[in-house]
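Notes to self, Lrp/AsnC family transcriptional regulator:
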Amino acid sequence: MLDDVDRRILRQYQRAPELTLSALAERCAITQATCWRRLERMQEAGVIRGQQAVIDWRAMGYEVEVSLRITLDKTAPRAFDEFLAAAREIPQVLEIQTFLGRVDLRLSVIARDMADYQRLYRDHILTLPHIADIEALMHVARIKSDEVLPV
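result:
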């Protein structure tokens, strides 16, 4: 169970993961040793899963983002497994989500421009196994994108 000090550390760590241990401890009004022990404990418990660099894909030349809602032909016994294995191999697929309901999966796909997206769609997406239905939703604007949790 997390206490108030753990929550304080997590709030500061989420806001600024690049902080040094001493700066994080100072912001949390605790000693460096306490901060380090608590961070270690939360990592071991799986509360903190790691750090990662977040790269702006637009800065890397990708201008198009599309959500693909996909329904699979579930008469094939391994439809999900085979689809997921193939979809994971496409580098432009940034995210794969599964759902219960009419839509089985959602792929988040990026492309450099519309011509690149059309090539990707035709040559890679449409060749994925067991697709019964597919709907493309073109992203217009990202209103909120935040992974900071309210702790």
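- The domain at 64-138 is CATH 3.30.70.920 (Alpha-Beta Plaits).
- Helices lie at 4-15, 21-28, 32-44, 79-88, 114-125.
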